[in-house]
Amino acid sequence: MTREMRSAISGVAIPADMPRHMFIGGRHVDAANGDRIETIDPATGKVFADVPAATVGDVDAAVADSRAALRGAWRDTLPVERGRILARAAALIRRDAERLAIIETLDSGKPLAESRGDVATTAGYFEYYAGMADKLQGDSIPLGPDYMSFTLHEPVGVTAHIIPWNFPLVTTARGVAPALAAGNTAIVKPATQTPLTALALADLLAEAGLPAGVYNAVTGRGSTIGDALVGHSGVDHVTFTGSVPTGINVMKVAADRVTSVTLELGGKSPVAVLADADLDAAVEGTLKAIYLNAGQVCSAGSRLVVDRKVHAAMLERLVQRANQLSVGHGLSDPKLGPLVSDSHRRAVAGYVDAARARGISIAAGGKPVEVPGFEGGYFYAPTILDQVSSQDPVIQEEIFGPVLSVQVVDSAEEAIAVANDTPFGLCAGIYTRDITRALRFAREVDAGQIFINQYFAGGVATPFGGTKLSGFGREKGLAALAAYYQVKCITARI
Ligand code: NAP
């Protein structure tokens, strides 16, 4: 860490130089009208930084600069050189990892260990796609002796990336790294609650040698600039990660210009635990599945679908462990940080309070937590709701907080039926020693990712995306690149 520090929370030094400007066309800029948005540390409820509140005019400027960079500097940069720049960016992200992690924790509330993991994964995305920049090659098509036919993989163009608050930096990298590798330019709109690391990333990409205008970060409210960005005639693809209602709106606005979209939306993912499972692994896996980032994870395992024969044993161990999990300021590196905002904590509490009123058993938590010294923070206890029926709202709707709902089943077949019985299809996990049952579950459950005996197994290289209301399109791995190139077929009569 090279920069001057401002003060410390829990002994962790806070960088003095928080990002303050948008990054458009290679310049640090304010909003055209000078307006700003404050960003709050969710563990204190206090403002700790502010960023420009972009106008529609600022979006127009970002699109214009992005288009100029596409046609000139970036599209025609040698693919191997594009890869080198992305690899240098990865190294710079690792160099500044601690600063980025601290900023991410202050902005989002997540525990420092999780932010450090997110920064490492961010560097991993740039490394992975750096290696792909010069390998996006097409096919030759055998039409016989009188023709020569082949395909080119050309960049889609200007790509917009709309980012949620729960994984700000890593979601930015997940879309931007493959987009840039394939020769596209990018405009990032981070969430209003967590704008800082998308701005910090801009400086590192510029230092790595990325030409001006190739990566632009525009901070502003989605309600003000979202439609203008998505519906802009100069935007060729939109990668949206966020809630179902906003995703539907994005798709409708993009449809007016027949702009392609990738939608990564919500989830209500099941963790199935069969009677023959390794219960130690199942308990650890379930805790991580629901309490990572205080449950504010699209792929969270928010439903435990457990065989009746091991229900009591699983519940007892989960309750004991949930009650012991530390809750505190993210910089003190607890197991759970705060929820992102007061309104979000009220929404989570509302689900639990309504479940309690319906007579559902609250086996653990079920209330806000006061952390001494951080009374203004938005903390909520790790919560377990037991024996919930399939049609209950806490099963059918995404709570997006540290709330696990337990569903009891009597067979592997019922586990599959229950796993499928929501409008979502993002992830599903299963714990069993029976490989046949595991693979049958994997085949029968309608979801984009299946985890067998380790929830969240995989990483940068494993394709990720949803079915049903969880969205469509794939990110991560080689599959992500398909959104960022278009296939042009050239055929010659010879
Ligand atoms: P959200 O309210 O939909 O916001 C997501 C992003 O959309 C934010 O940047 C937001 O900007 C922006 N936005 C708002 N209105 C818009 C508009 N009219 N046009 C374009 N963009 C607009 O979702 P969230 O509450 O931030 O995130 C939580 C949701 O994201 C959960 O449902 C979760 O499951 C989902 N998620 C999914 C994945 C995945 O990969 N599948 C990953 C993470 C999160 P403002 O912040 O300025 O409003």
User: How many domains, as an integer?
Assistant: 2
Main sheet specs = 7 strands, mixed
Question: How many separate helices?
Answer: 14
- The class by helix and strand makeup works out as alpha/beta
Q: How many individual β-strands? A: 24
Low-confidence stretches: none
Strand order of the largest sheet: 16-17-18-15-14-20-21
Question: What is the radius of gyration?
Answer: 23 Å
- What ligand species are in this complex? NADP nicotinamide-adenine-dinucleotide phosphate
Strand-residue proportion = 15-25%
Helix fraction? 25-40%
Q: Give the CATH class of the largest domain.
A: Alpha Beta
So what's the overall shape? globular
Mean pLDDT: 97
User: What name does the CATH topology of the largest domain carry?
Assistant: Aldehyde Dehydrogenase, Chain A, domain 1
Q: What is the CATH architecture annotation of the largest domain? A: 3-Layer(aba) Sandwich
How would you classify the quaternary structure? Answer: single chain
Looking at this structure, what is the CATH superfamily of the largest domain?
Aldehyde Dehydrogenase, Chain A, domain 1
Describe the structure.
By secondary structure, the chain is α/β, with parallel strands linked by helices. The chain has 2 domains: 8-265 and 472-490, Aldehyde Dehydrogenase, Chain A, domain 1 (3-Layer(aba) Sandwich), CATH 3.40.605.10; 270-459, Aldehyde Dehydrogenase, Chain A, domain 2, CATH 3.40.309.10. The protein has 14 helices and 24 strands. A 7-stranded mixed sheet has the order 16-17-18-15-14-20-21, with helices on both faces. A 6-stranded mixed sheet has the order 11-10-9-12-13-23, with helices on both faces. A 3-stranded antiparallel sheet has the order 7-8-24, with no helix packed on it. Strand 3 and strand 4 (27-29) form a beta hairpin. Helix 3 crosses helix 4. It is globular, with a radius of gyration of 23 Å. The mean pLDDT is 97. The chain binds NADP nicotinamide-adenine-dinucleotide phosphate (NAP). NADP nicotinamide-adenine-dinucleotide phosphate (NAP) binds next to helix 7 and helix 8.
